[in-house]
Amino acid sequence: MSTNIKRIGVLTSGGDAPGMNAAVRAVVRSAAFYKIECAAIYQGYQGLIDNKVKMMNARGVNNIINKGGTILKSARCLEFRTKEGRKKAFETIQKHQIDGLVVIGGDGSFTGAMIFQSEYNIPVMGIPGTIDNDIYGTTHTIGYDTALNTVIGAIDKIRDTAISHNRLFFVEVMGRDAGHIALNAGIGAGAEEVLIPEENMGLERLLESLKRSEKSGKSSSIVVIAEGDKSGKNVFEIAEYVEKNLPYYDVRVSVLGHMQRGGSPTCFDRVLASRMGVFAVESLLAGKSNMMVGLKNEEMILSPFEKAIKGKSEINKDLIRVSDILTI
Ligand code: ADP
After folding, report:
1. Active-site residue 250, yes or no?
2. pLDDT tens digits for 51-100?
3. Which of 21, 129, 269, 295 is in Cβ range 3.0-4.6 Å of 265 for a Cys bridge?
4. For the structural domain made of 7-143+265-310, what CATH number should be given?
5. What does DSSP say about strands 124-128 and 101-105: parallel, antiparallel, or unpaired?
6. CATH top class, domain 145-261
7. Per-residue model confidence as pLDDT tens digits over 260-288
8. Is the Cβ–Cβ distance between 179 and 315 less than 8 Å?
9. Is residue 142 within 8 Å of 17, Cβ to Cβ?
10. 189 with 256: CB under 8 angstroms?
11. What is the Å distance from ligand 1's center to 154 Cα?
């Protein structure tokens, strides 16, 4: 490894995701392994602007690999969107002699990192941490697997009630622009139908499907709906519409909300975060910058920020087919 990087900074930014702590741990420990220093920056870009920086050694990240959220805290920072804000952030970088930055966050955080890099030429590496899995350049983002498991755990419990009372449940899950959580958790939890932002199945098709299942003898059903589904109605309006048209169903709505972000990360997310943290530090030390680490075909890869931000993480169409077949 050969660059003149002697001290790196690490921060978590944007929406928190389980596994961010495992990534912070991996960055701090890799820095120690390669004999460079690591500065922890608290509250994302806000902490960079407000000089909330603390040196962190390998022992400073003991006992966090199993913890949800982020010990570094996260923040949405309006000031970093301004030139003046980024100037203050760079003053903090200079003050602490930080000569490389690891940003753990989503595409908004990477946009900020890219602009910062272009203005001040500080080497930056991104680690994708978001439960939505909506980032191009990696098959999995940190936190996604944990969120999926949280969602199917919740739906399993809802199913107990649905069966006991012959009810039809509409379960809203996170995903404004991406249906990865809805589609995968829908299949994993055996949902009757899944409504996602990528496809507009139309409410008529939903009614037909529910009629069919009632005729075939199903007395309870679960429909999973992503926040950003394309029906033009929210989950309560969809439930009302179905109840009006299919009065024999006893309809209930459950919005899972922020519980999907929390909890102890799964083994998959811990391993992913650990690999990404190590690879991010190694990539910075190899002179790479302005890139995001990702997972593809079991290997660690790098993608330029620009691609990661602008590219679209496509939904796996075969999963839609599988879901359709299994809900017969
Ligand atoms: P995420 O990283 O999860 O997508 P956000 O979109 O909220 O979350 O972005 C996190 C932070 O990144 C913002 O609060 C802001 O400080 C910074 N950021 C986002 N977009 C820009 C931008 N265009 N210019 C500068 N900073 C940005």
Report:
1. no
2. 999 999 999 999 999 999 999 999 999 999 999 999 999 999 999 999 99
3. 269
4. 3.40.50.450
5. parallel
6. alpha beta
7. 999 999 999 999 999 999 999 999 999 99
8. yes
9. yes
10. no
11. 30
